[in-house]
Amino acid sequence: MLGAAALAVPAAAGLFAFLSPLRQKKASGQLCRVTTLDSLAEDGTPQKFPIIADRTDAWTLYKNVPIGSVFLRRVGPDRVKALAVVCPHAGCAIGYDAAARDFLCPCHTARFDLDGRRTDEHSKSPRDMDTLPDVEIRDNEVWVRFENFRTGIAEKVVAS
Amino acid sequence: MMNACWKWIDERTGLGTWIAACRERRVPGRPCLCRALPCMLAFAFAVQAITGVVMLMRYCPSTQTAWESVYYLQHEVQGGWLLRAVHHYTGQAVLVLVWLYLLGMIFRGTYRAGREFVYWSILLLGLVALAQLLTGDLLAWDDNSRSATLTRVGFLEALPGVGESLFKLAAAGPEFGNLTLAQFTALHTIVFAGAFLLLLAFRGWFARRTEKIAALSAVGSSQEPSRDREGAVATRETEKPLPHGRGSESTSGTRFWPGQALVNVLGCVILLAVVFGCALSHGVDAPERGVTLGPPADPVGFYDAARPEWAFLGLYGFSKLDVFAGDTIVPIFVIPGAVVLFFVLMPWIGRVRFGRLPLGHALNIVVLVVLLVGNVWLSFKVVAQDRADELHQRAIRENRLAAERMLTLIAHRGGIPPAGALELLHNDPKTQGPILFRRHCATCHDYVGQSPDDIKAEESTAPNLFAYGSRRWLSGLLDPKRIVGPEYFGNTAFKRGEMAQFVRDTFSDLEPEDREELDQIVMTLSAEAKLPAQSEMDRKDAIKIAEGRALIGGNEGYCTDCHQFGDSGQLGIAPQLNGYASREWMIGIVRNPADPRFYGAKNDRMQAYGAADDESKNLLTDREIELLIDWLRGDWVEAAGSRQ
Description:
Helix content of chain A is about 10%, strand content about 35%. Chain A has a three-stranded antiparallel beta sheet, with no helix packed on it. A three-stranded antiparallel beta sheet of chain A has the order 2-3-4, with no helix packed on it. Chain A is mostly beta strands. In chain B, about 60% of the residues lie in helices and about 0% in strands. Chain B has helices spanning about 1-15, 15-25, 35-55, 65-75, 80-105, 115-140, 145-155, 165-170, 180-220, 225-240, 255-280, 310-320, 330-350, 360-390, 390-415, 420-425, 430-440, 470-475, 500-505, 510-530, 535-540, 540-550, 585-590, 620-630, and strands spanning about 25, 255.
């Protein structure tokens, strides 16, 4: 008994360190400059752009590196729609299938139309593609608030 | 002397007595390969421990060093690739052995009364072996291992309430990174490996105990009954339902030594042969030998053809079934969890009888067969689907090429930079060029030259940039028909421009000597580009090129009415021809095509990608423009130091 109690001290100390990742949060919520309005195809074809920002991985700080990607497509003369490339199902990267003019996730073959809606009734994805609602056009520059969302659930919840 | 020594040791350790007892141990029936499975599992563990410890001595878990140290092991350490391959295939073999063991126990009915703990330790051993595959796979930190593991661990996020916390705990952070590698290394080499060893020991302990009870019961069958005996009799009956009255003979069986011992050794040799067969199946020549190592994992990207190892393929196929539309909880957690629970309960289910019919046992066997067949069927199904999927195959091909490219770059540099191997890929024009071109240029420009790397514009409204500045490209530009075609100015404002007009007026219906002159102009202008692929030709034609300069500029020159070349002509009317299509010139035009040096006010829709001094205001960084231009000019390193 006493021995077990004595072991509890280092065990507790270890547990604190082991649980420490719980307090860390995903890097998101930053408004990032992505590209210019002119570089987006006028016919509404989606294009994938990297999001450049700072990224921290435990002790390493990377300055101005890709932290993710977004699909941008023009939906009006100065209106841009931003869709997350991360598949809401299992977190794979959705690609644009130019031949079929839709989005395709390569992992479990979920398909989405250009607005990000699921097109297959057996789609593995629990929800439509995630829209990044905060898109700003500032003198020809496209700015997007980049966010990650929880995967595998039907509701769209910002990952924290 | 030896004897005295041995006696001294035996007295103090009891080793000799123990060995003798092991030899004297009796095993039921004749020596059999099926009874070699525990020994083979222990042997497999030993192989994993030996190869694993050496690999751990050569491994550095962090995002800048994990892939790099595995690369070093695979390609630089002598025999390192074989170590990796043997470790890899033995890991898979363990899973097969566990399956065989469970199958044997269940089919022969030896999982029931008396031997439940033996059965459970093997079951747990199987789960630990799966955990070992999952954690071990990540450590290589190549494209596939990161993406496939991220997907599997990422399923945790789907769990209601605790999902995100579980993921963070498993990944040791909100995203896969340095600490994920460190944690998986510790889990793989210490936690799960230790659990495996413990379970092996427990299995041995429990098995010895059931044997002892069986022996006791057989000896004591004529004496007064005891609690022990009752249990033991039950064991005997389930192990082999013998006709009544022959129970006492079962103690005879055969001695472990030498028959079964030899069979055990045979089993281990077969295991080793199979493992080495697999390990050597890709030959012994670099770079394909042993187990594939893809390009280093992109820290935020995702590999499109990511797939788990075969042990998880059945589950992957299962989760892909149409009935689970939009759901991950049921196929990934509920049903596999229920299956594991069923396996745990099997010894009890197996005891259920309906009258004289062993209904529970029959159910167990049916479930087992269905699971096994279903698993194999689903695995083959997804493999067949992937084989037929052109996008998947292309992703794999590109991945292989990137892995080969990585080796070329490392060899060319003579080593990996401190920031990691990815830095080499990120600074490689051959790798980055097509990516940047697709993202920024292919909205308007083609890059089409009948090569597998062709990039077709979404809507071709600008010149085809394949082999831009080469003699071939320039002879097309100065061809009256082609200059107004879609490959040049056909889809631009310059279709009706002065240049097209000039080419039509000057170079239509040429006499042979005029054609020679035109060729000389092309040759001379193209030499300005200093393209690596043309350096040999430029050197050979140096005299013609020197003479050709007079055809472009000077008093007699064709071009300097509008263009500046040498000392003649002026800027501001048409692009400068000094250093035309050279690296510096191309970087300039991409930065700002509306600069007076290039198209000035006549610029047709081409964006300025780097006009501002402040890089953060530009569409492309200076480095990105350089990479793009170097790729367009075919200026990159190739294997053995040769240049494209």
